[in-house]
Amino acid sequence: MDPIFRSSGFDFSNSIRNNFLHEKGLPLPKATSTGTTIVGCLFKDGIILGADTRATEGPIVADKNCEKIHYISESIRCCGAGTAADTEFVTASISSNMELHALSTGRKPRVVTAMTMLKQYLYRYQGNVGAALVLGGVDSTGPHLFTIHPHGSTDKLPYVTMGSGSLAAMAVFESGWKPNMEREEALQLVTAAISAGIFNDLGSGSNVDACVITATHTEMLRNFVKPNERVEKERKYTFRRGTTAWRSENIRSLIVSEEVTPVGGEAMDIS
Amino acid sequence: MPDMASLTHPIQRQFNPYTENGGTILAIAGADFTVISGDTRQSEGYSIQTRYAPKVFRLTDRAVLAVNGFAADGNMFVKKVKERLEWYRHAHSKDMPLRAIARLIQTMLYARRFFPYYVYNILGGIEEDGTGAVYSFDPVGSYEREACRAAGAAQSLVQPFLDNQASHKPFPIYFKNQLAAPNMSHPAHLPLPIVLSIVIDSFTGATERHIEVGDGLEMYIVLAKGRGLHDLEGIMGVQELTATEDGERVFVVRRELKKD
């Protein structure tokens, strides 16, 4: 539906279509949702972001080791919970626009810029883009940590959690967070918060990812802790060659005939 | 934006007497033994209610019942079945044979046809003729004797695996869709250690991909009268639950499953 003359205001034609189809009996497609526990935490030298690595489709695990900490810019990262496609695309889109913006302004990108772009986009879609984000980074004005909800509201806080495991993680944060923590302390707290989500929330699981952002350096700790490695299986289930029953066999050579004619004096130089 | 569907008609809220507590159960019948197993996680929605809530219960020395679905109904149903078995014991001075227990479960379930026990039952044990048997039921009492059956949250993950690796009928089509090696045939019945390995791998696999499965695994093994115990020697942590001498024997083995 792309009319030449667009009417002003929000375009909800897809929402109207979806509701109509749903009422007619078409089941809504199950979006892959990240279930998820994501956290962000302010410490002495900057921000630490944390996330689990399980992606679910209803009660089934779609991806046991997905990446939920997305790149926005060198010193800014964004954790995403909610509909996986939405978090993926919205962070990639804003990341791209941030780079263009940085080139245009001639300045290093700021966290509030990303936050504003994200919230304005999400508000425009009235919650239909299911992205719940934890945005954190360090810029020329210092370290900043934001949480952004699917409808476009934002909060600026020293420690935040989002996703189905957010209550489990927040319980850990509320017990253990204090201002001006050292890097090791803060990392331990983030790991404990994500682990609380992993073990107590069914929508979260597998491994802990972390990202430490300071004024000078961003360190991505992919699979920082792996408390859920699969045990070795009891048996091998490889099938014996010849297991599949067949009725007739027909082998054709793809090379009908071959003639090699050396051309030129020297051998080919493949060094 | 409000849900457009709700604008067209009024919505009514009513008390829902049932809930789903997740988990998975599985039973495999051998030549002279049966394995009945279930994970121990009980959940509701995205929360874990407990990491250890048994779903598999010993009824007699030859019958073990696994229940899955709505835990409150499951637990109460097991109690009711045990009560009926106790009445039978006093009336007839013997334990109920397995196929009689299966029929009893059908009538007990159908008696609540219009407010059912929301449970999928799997009854496993040793028949009067000494063979391993598995009976599976739907919530209102339809039942059938089978070689193997999985039920519960991860049924759709486990049952196809069992059909491929463990299935046999009295009519031998073992290892469906697979040719045996030349000059060999597939074994008519799987030995106990292999069945236990298949059960463990079914549950570790289900745990990987289903959020409602995990925490722990309990496997009950029922052996026919006179069957030797040598198969059990290699298995760690075997506990005997047999109440009588000279009859069938019941054992339980517990294993850990992933807790995420």
Care to describe what's here?
- The complex is a heterodimer of chains A (271) and B (260).
- Chain A has 271 residues and is an alpha+beta fold.
- Chain A has helices at 13-23, 84-105, 111-124, 166-176, 183-200; strands at residues 38-43, 46-51, 55-57, 60-63, 69-73, 76-82, 131-139, 142-148, 154-156, 159-162, 208-214, 218-225.
- Chain B is of the alpha+beta class and 260 residues long.
- Helix content of chain B is 27%, strand content 28%.
- In chain B, the strands form three sheets. In chain B, strands 10-1-2-11-13-12 form a six-stranded antiparallel sheet. In chain B, strands 5-6-7-8-9 form a five-stranded antiparallel sheet, covered by helices on one side.
- Chain B starts with a helix and ends with a strand.
- Classes of the chains: A alpha+beta (271), B alpha+beta (260).
- Chain A binds chain B through residues 12, 15-16, 19, 22-23, 35, 54, 56, 59-61, 64, 126-128, 164, 198-206, 227-228, 230-231, 233-235, 237, 239-240, 242-245, and chain B through 1, 4-5, 8, 43, 45-48, 153, 165, 177-179, 181-182, 194, 196-198, 200-201, 204, 208-212, 258-260.
Write the layout of secondary structure elements.
The complex is a heterodimer of chains A (271) and B (260).
Chain A: H1 13-23, E1 38-43, E2 46-51, E3 55-57, E4 60-63, E5 69-73, E6 76-82, H2 84-105, H3 111-124, E7 131-139, E8 142-148, E9 154-156, E10 159-162, H4 166-176, H5 183-200, E11 208-214, E12 218-225
Chain B: H1 4-8, E1 24-29, E2 33-39, E3 42-44, E4 47-50, E5 56-60, E6 63-69, H2 71-92, H3 98-110, E7 119-126, E8 132-137, E9 143-146, E10 148-152, H4 155-165, H5 192-209, E11 216-223, E12 238-240, E13 249-256
Antiparallel strand pairs in B: 1-2, 1-10, 2-11, 3-4, 5-6, 6-7, 7-8, 8-9, 11-13, 12-13
Helix pairs in contact in B: 4-5
